Amino acid sequence: MNGTRGALADPPALVSGMAEEFLRAAEVAKGQHGAVTARQFGDAGVSSGQRRRQVERGVLERSGAHTYRSSFAPRSARADLAAVVLDCGPDCVASGPTAAALHGFDGIGLRPPYHVTVLRGRNVQRTHHFVHTTTVLPRSDVARFVSAKTLTAMLDSALRDGLTSEEALHRRIVELRSSGRPGWRSCSP
User: Fold this and answer.
1) Average pLDDT over residues 2-30
2) Residues whose CB is less than 8 angstroms from the CB of residue 153 and which lie 6 or more positions away in sequence, other chains included
């Protein structure tokens, strides 16, 4: 189970004595930075009692209301964010400064509290993180969360790295510059 993205440690004694259902759940966790939901455990055949015993033994740890992670999975900001997104449900995405940090924009780092967005109509709250709601999942919403200086550094890095062009950026800003759009008016000269 060694890999580069969300790899889980493979202690030989653990794998050889691991029940088949936990191996199935571990395969799921590999693509999710070590996190697995209670539902995914159930789909793999792991009962709530088995999960509870693994938490008591220190093999699993709770990372959210609905999410667990292997105590053997490497900890990182990306792994922590993946667990938050997974815990908030299938319609959850990283947003605002968190999404900007994932893109590697200058002036912003990936660190808690994370900003995530879910579709409106669900009451999703996570301690120490910002859960936003929307009727349509956002494409660009970072301007309302960062200072003009940070936004300038991020946009400069997006232009430099070829993630956008000045023309495309100008078109999008004109689209977004209307009342009810926080952040964009403050970017005007």
Assistant:
1) 60
2) 105, 106, 107, 108
